[in-house]
Amino acid sequence: MTLARSFKKGKGEWSMNSLRRLAQAYSTTPWRKQISTGMLILVILLGVILAASLYLDVTARTLALGRAIIMMENEITEVEMINAHLRTQLGILKSSAMMEKRALEMGFRRIEPDEEIYLIVPGYVPLDQTLVSSSSRKAQSVSYSLPPIYTQSLLDWLKSKLDAWANSERGSSP
Amino acid sequence: MSQDFSSRYILLGTLFTVLAALIFGQHVSLLLDHQRGEILEEVRASHLGSIWTIHPPRGLIFDRKGQLLAGNEMVYEVGIDYRAVNKEADDAHTIALTSNVYFGLDYYKVKVTVENPPNPQQVYLPLAKGIEKDKVDKLQNFLEIRDTDSRLERTEKARLARHLRGLVLQPYMKRVYPEPLLASNVMGFVGYTQQALPLGYFGVEAKYNEMLAGTPVKLWVPNDPRLVQDFPPIPEGASLILTIDRELQAAVEKILEENIQKTKSETGVIVVLDPKTGEVWAMASYPRLDISRYWDYEAISQKGQFVFNRAISAMYEPGSVFKVLTMASALDKGVVTEDTTYLDKGAIEVGGLVIYNWDRAGHGKQSMQGCMQLSLNVCLAWVATQLGAADLYTYLQAFGIGHTTGIDLDGERAGILKLPQDPLWSESEIGTNSFGQGVSATPIQMAAAISALANDGKIMRPHIVRAIIKDGEQFMITPSVSSIPISAKTARTLTEMLARSLEAEASSALVDGYRVAGKTGTGEIAIPGAGYTSGETNASFAGWGPVDDPRFLVYIWLEKPKTSIWGSEVAAPIFPKVVEQIALLMNIPPDRYRKATH
Predict the structure, then answer these.
(1) Which of B78, B377, B513, B585 is deepest in the core (most CB within 10 A)?
(2) Which candidate, B397, B413, B494, places its Cα nearest to that of B449?
(3) Which residues contact B199 (CB under 8 A, 6 or more apart)?
(4) Angle, nearest 10°, between helix axes A96-105 and B246-263?
(5) Quick check: A118 and B589 CB within 8 A?
């Protein structure tokens, strides 16, 4: 109100000086400086908290995945053992004595030599080689490795990204 | 005020300096004291992670048609983790009761073991090994909390699981044989070393132990999950495909055991092999061990002597079946021909020793075929003298007598063949050796030696493994020639002579539909110091066929038969029974069909 009235009264010079003094007083007010410093610290702290929580999140997930990998390795070992076990159980079920017993139960009997009938097929050569697949772990023969995302730290990841960015800036990236 | 501060700074500075000096000093001392440094390094490493030794699963064993003969079974080791046992909560009772109910372990023994660790530092103690998977599955099913469980059931299961935290069930693979008696003499078995590592004993399991066991891999497993790496591929042990045919082996074992009982023999062996490749199709040995209970080996011991596989480890004086080798040598050298005749007077003196025929009679003028047909010791001794010591023993060594055949089974023995340069050799050995006395051989040696007649004079190295499977790739074993003691012409001539001999005497070894050749053998068993006076014999028969294109060779040995001492009466009749099974199971058509295709 006072300022407006002053302008109306045409006392322009006085008014400009007052404004300048006011601005100077405001800018040099101690509490304002404190707020400014406080805010700056707060922003830095917020940044640190953000980075720390991001790092913690990534680390926690890495740890959880690491544990999961160990558990899965154990499961794989157990499944392989179970597979081998089942394969042997199948071998027992198909053993000579068991097969003979089952055949007899089904009403079959051993053939006598004079009952055998041979059919002559000109040019036929019987296959004399047996192919056996023994590997229950064939999948393991294909080498595999964990993607880096499961093993690298946040810093490693940042570094890799920065390297990639720097390389692309230089135009050396493929 | 400022003086106070400066004195504090000085104190702090001094403290840090002393600390740094101590650290430096410790570092230097550790550098100088390697042993202590290594111990501390181990402690550090143990905190960072642990080393796991992973033993790959033992390779499998198949028969020639791909049927499983040896596999692996998942079993458990039951143990106590003392760190997880809560004594106040009476975990010992629950663990002991569970071990008793589910695994059949002694309740009191387990309870005492759980309550009293052998020493305070011990954290783990195994209670039992080889617990079947079914039993563990039952316990795990019982403890599993299901959606259908009531609240009370869930609480009770959770309580039990808490009490059982100290009970450790550790799975591992155990060797298992679907038919533990089938070809057990060929297979061998897997026992465990003092370090609880599996190790093959006898047979294929011992001979190929390293290949079957694979290579154990040591892995460093970090405690820090961030450092965890995937396990590298761990190749399992190589698997083997044998030359043995499971069905034929079972049939031959059955025939052998029936005839052991029928003839009241002490032991026996039947070997069936393919003379063209040296592949052993069947190898039956009686008595045989149940390899799922290999620790009961006393059960098959003979008079305190344990022979795992008589076909390769039992040496005996083969008797007249050996005449085949003498005659083959003489024919090949040309000192006699098929048409050579000999006047048999029933006795001959060689090196000061008078040799008689088996019937102590003279048989007059005989052709070489007649000598073989009547199995005349005197005639063969004469043939050997015509050949001479040098050539006789050169031939016998070429036939493989006196050294191992190299069959890929553990425990093969070489037999005994005295040579003229040996101090114990005398000239009379020429005569006795000619008809299989004074010389000892194993059944596989005899089978391999006689196989030369069935394979145009070539002896193929007898072998049991047909193919090896490594990393999913199958490699076939190439048959190899062991030696060529005689020419193809000699082999065919003698085969024809022996086929005619069987036909002429209407031998019980003849087989309907197949023309076969063969020779019986009856070797007297000597008593040390008393000579050949025991009245007991080794009865043998070696036969092969079809004569025009031999596909199989069968060697039969019965030790000390009681119903008859003669090979022609106890061993020869087994031959057609075995050949019938060979023909059926190995697809060998009768001569009339086979000739129709040519």
Answers:
(1) B377
(2) B397
(3) B190, B191, B192, B193, B209, B213
(4) 90
(5) yes
Closest chain B CA to residue A76: B231
**Helix-helix angle B91-103:B107-115, to 10 degrees:** 150
Residue from the list A63, A84, A130 with its beta carbon closest to the beta carbon of B71: A84
pLDDT computed for residue A6 by the predictor = 46
CA torsion B90-B91-B92-B96 (nearest 10°) is 130
Contact (CB, 8 A) for B485 and B457? yes
Q: How many angstroms separate the CA atoms of B79 and B164, rounded?
A: 11
The pair of three-digit structure tokens given for residue B294, joined into one six-digit string: 């290999």
| Mean pLDDT of the region A80-86 | 87
Phi, psi of B317 (to 5 degrees): -80, 115
User: By three-state DSSP, how is residue B239 classified?
Assistant: strand
d(C-alpha B311, C-alpha B35), whole Å? 55
Residue of A92, A119, A132 to mutate, interface with B, max B Cβ within 10 Å: A132
Please report the beta strands in B321-409, taking only residues with DSSP state E, as ranges in sequence order.
341-344, 347-350, 353-356, 364-367
Chain B hits for A136, CB-CB cut-off 8 Å, are 57, 236
Which residues in chain A have Cβ-Cβ distances shorter than 8 Å to B173? 81, 84
pLDDT digits (tens, 9 = 90+) for B236-270: 889 999 999 999 999 999 999 999 999 999 999 99
For tokens 């036969």, the residue is: B543
The answer to whether the predicted template modeling score (pTM) of the entire model surpasses 0.95 is no
- CA nearest B232: which of A98, A142, A57? A142
Residue A82 token pair: 């179970």
Min Cα distance A158 → chain B (Å) is 17
pLDDT in tens, B417-428: 999 999 989 999
Q: Quick check: B363 and B308 in contact, CB under 8 A?
A: no
Q: B386, exposed or middle or buried, with CB in 10 Å at 0-12, 13-18, 19+?
A: middle
d(CA B178, CA A171): 66
Residue B462 CA to residue B478 CA, distance in Å, equals 12
Neighbouring residues of B489: CB distance < 8 A, sequence distance ≥ 6? none
Mean pLDDT, range B557-562, rounded to an integer: 95
Query: Is the bond into B561 cis (omega within 30 degrees of 0)?
Result: no
**3-state class (DSSP) for residue B17:** helix
Q: How close, in Å, is residue A102 to chain B by CA atoms?
A: 15
Identify the pLDDT of residue A151. 66
Q: How far is A53 from chain B (nearest CA, A)?
A: 17
Residue A13: its pLDDT value, please? 65
Is A123 in CB contact (< 8 Å) with chain B? Answer: no
Cβ pair B226:A151 closer than 8 A: yes
pLDDT digits (tens, 9 = 90+) for B274-294: 999 999 999 999 999 898 888
Tell me the ipTM for this assembly.
0.73
Write out chain B residues lying below 8 Å of A81, CB-based. 57, 74, 171-173
Per-residue pLDDT reduced to its tens digit, B99-110: 999 999 999 999
Residue whose token pair is 């070797």:
B523
Q: Residue B227: closest CA among chain A residues belongs to which residue?
A: A151
Residues 27-86 of chain B with CB under 8 A from chain A are 57, 59-60, 62, 64-68, 71-74
